[in-house]
Specification:
- The structure is a homodimer.
- Chain A is mainly α and about 210 residues long.
- Chain A has eight helices and no strands.
- The termini of chain A are far apart.
- The relative contact order of chain A is 0.11.
- The interface between A and B is large, with 48 and 48 residues.
- The structure holds a DNA duplex (30 and 30 nucleotides).
DNA sequence: GAATCTATCTAATAGGATTAGGTATGTCAA
DNA sequence: TTGACATACCTAATCCTATTAGATAGATTC
């Protein structure tokens, strides 16, 4: 038999592609082996099982996503950066639904690379928040808020949770605006419960295309 | 053989309990049948398969969740109502993780009850937004924003996506504050991009316990 | 060319979903 | 009381999946 010449990277890459095209549920070792022209047990030479494969797809996805976010954020600040990162986030989740779902699972605490990949995503978001004057605990809370909002939207959208997909682009833009306003208010000095938002803060610099 | 006396409701209830205690992944017909003192094929008399069971658990969960949210919102308005609903939402997801996950899947378009259950949840959120003066399209976008944020937080929290579970209660409170501020600004009249938030809007009426 | 490494194979086990078809329990009417 | 019927439950069987064990053959190295 001619060898297929696989290695772990190739298997993970093919697994990610399959998951992205047919959904993470459709990713089975039997199916993936078929796609690769190999019998299912052969995959165990490269991956230690289905769970391991899913985790590796997740790590790969997290690194990819972090790269996209980093590119989007480069050279931008404040609301502009938030907007760009939010778009890149949603774009990635829609282009790679299987990888995105895999990346959403808790990283294996024993796998340093998994933790590092997750950290890279968080770090990009955290960097954006410097433009809002947030640091320390405030930045942690704000990072969690942004991640929650973006992930929640993307997750509901993918699952069909919004019913008719009417004006989803606009809804997403509004969500990002709500975050922007809320975070700007949070950073405008304590006590931050009663004061009006600052007036002259620069807003989005590039006009948003109408959906 | 003595009959177990099952019916569909009993099977779904037991399935939801199993999913809540051991996770939706642990819900198998074989396991559930064992719990009910019955063989796996017997469940097909009450449920048309594993997928159907999951969907029914989801519908049941959506109705339960809608009830909790409705109770939380009763007699409150504005930021107070938003806060109460947000807490109830998170409480439900933590108390019933399996049902929550099941409810998150897209409802079967052919099942009227599934659609109605999903609608009930959305309606409670939408009702809260009346206290923010939002209606029509604005209310739709705002509803989606709130659902995204709450679901995203709860989903990341459950999946261990926040790393160390440090100060999660506080982060959640801050997230709700960000929503409140952002929505209040959205409702304060158009053009809504530049104006300061209204000053005298009533804030949360009950002090939030420190985490 | 021999030795080694390893990617792949076949064979086998185990567990899950699901279908087909039989059995016995409960209900209801005569 | 007895018969008929509906149905809750069963066993047996099929198919698919993950996974392990052990053999083989292609590639690499000395």
């Amino acid at each position: 038999m001619a060898r297929a010449g696989l290695d772990t990277d190739e298997v993970v890459r093919a697994g990610a592609r399959l998951a992205d095209v047919e959904g993470l549920e459709a990713l089975t070792l039997a199916r993936l082996a078929g796609d690769l022209g190999v019998r299912a047990p052969s995959l165990y030479a490269h991956v230690s099982g289905l769970d391991d494969l899913r985790r590796r797809i997740g790590v790969r996805g997290a690194l990819e996503l972090a790269g996209e976010l980093q590119t989007a954020a480069a050279g931008r600040a404040g609301a502009d950066a938030l907007d760009a990162v939010a778009r890149a986030y949603r774009d990635y989740a829609r282009a790679h639904p299987g990888s995105y779902e895999a990346l959403q699972r808790a990283p294996d605490p024993r796998d340093a690379r998994a933790g590092a990949a997750a950290t890279r995503v968080v770090d990009v978001v955290r960097a954006v928040l410097r433009g809002y004057g947030l640091d320390g605990d405030d930045a942690t809370h704000a990072t969690r808020a942004i991640r929650s909002a973006l992930h929640g939207f993307v997750s509901l959208e993918r699952g069909g949770g919004f019913g008719l997909p009417l004006a989803l682009d606009e809804s997403y833009a509004e969500l990002v605006d709500v975050l922007d306003r809320g975070l700007a208010a949070a950073s405008s000095g304590r006590p931050r419960r009663a004061g009006p938002a600052p007036r002259a803060r620069p807003r989005r610099t590039t006009p948003r295309p109408k959906p």
